[in-house]
dTDP-4-dehydrorhamnose reductase (Roseimaritima ulvae), 297 residues
Amino acid sequence: MHIALIGASGYVGAEFAAQINARGDRLTTVGRADCDVYSAEALRKTLRDASPDVVVNCAGYTGKPNVDACELDKANCLAGNGVLPGVIQQACESLNIPWGHVSSGCIFTGRRPDGKGFVETDTPNFSFRQNNCSWYSGTKALGEEVLADAQQCYIWRLRIPFSNIDSPRNYLSKVQRYENLLEAENSLSNLPEFVAACLDCFSKNVPYDIYNLTNPGSMKTSEVVELIKASGVSDKQFHFFDSEDDFMQRAAKTPRSNCVMDSSKAIAAGLKLTPIEECIQQTLKNWVPEKEAAVGQ
Ligand SMILES: NC(=O)C1=CN([C@@H]2O[C@H](COP(=O)(O)OP(=O)(O)OC[C@H]3O[C@@H](n4cnc5c(N)ncnc54)[C@H](OP(=O)(O)O)[C@@H]3O)[C@@H](O)[C@H]2O)C=CC1
Ligand SMILES: Cc1cn([C@H]2C[C@H](O)[C@@H](COP(=O)(O)OP(=O)(O)O[C@H]3O[C@@H](C)C(=O)[C@@H](O)[C@H]3O)O2)c(=O)[nH]c1=O
């Protein structure tokens, strides 16, 4: 399969590129340096010339070191998350190329009113329409609205990614590095399993649709801390904020979307997502500290 990857230079894009190469698929990367990705015509020409079988979009604006930074660069964030998906849709549809878009579970907060995790048909409850969200989450929800009528398109929802490679973007690293932790319940995505599931959508002919690609189940921060301690990866003394208000006052500029998601639709479609506790345990067993990860590159 020949895959054109938009956003290959990012945290998520790098994992896509690595797995595409490891599968022996053909990879063409498309970035802002190659063409004006905001021009459907320029993007169409670039894609037509490359002639891929499928396109994957993992470009987007996340904010560094975290989503707080999006509050300071709203126009770029809106462009990357709200406008770009629509331009890619236009280019792909004009060439009749199937494609997938990396969205985020952060368009939800909490649990459904019935206590269950959010499913794909639930309306995002952490969005500009609810007027309760971070700028980042609002733009990601808009991105999904833009793609509501997209053809031959997967929307893959990633949520607080983690892997065994220690890095500032890895949730298991963040838990070890933050001075104080917010106690919250979340569904999480193992990044390698997320990317494998996205690529499997094409190879297994999974129906085009929205998929929550989180590892089944959810974890409280304190439960993640216990797994880290039990693994021997860190012997740090972990400290917690007193409350969400304390977190907002001392560490955050904008609210976070801690939420529980239901990934049973993805599992039923044959995508492999290991239950969350088991997945974190396996990940910590194979932990590669950042210094060793840098040597291996
Ligand atoms: N990391 C996370 O925690 C999560 C990420 N996601 C989503 O996954 C996607 C990738 O995230 P991640 O890899 O972490 O992000 P990174 O910031 O690591 O990478 C972002 C990528 O998008 C490109 N990009 C950044 N801003 C823009 C813009 N305004 N217009 C066009 N291209 C842009 C960058 O390209 P360039 O080299 O040109 O700068 C880069 O390739 C995003 O859509 C994000 O919302 C979803 C859930 C969780
Ligand atoms: C800043 C901070 C966050 N947290 C918690 C809040 C939250 O539950 C969790 C993650 O918050 P962060 O601020 O690290 O990350 P944030 O930027 O909110 O993370 C998000 O990135 C974007 C791109 C996404 O799409 C999301 O799915 C998610 O991965 O860590 C702490 O415990 N202590 C802290 O000091």
Notes: The pocket of NDP (ligand 1) is lined by residues 7, 9-13, 31-32, 37, 58-62, 76, 79-81, 84, 102, 104, 140, 158, 161, 169 (CB under 6 Å). Residues 30 and 215 are 29 Å apart (CA to CA). The chain has a mean pLDDT of 97. The longest strand covers residues 99-104.
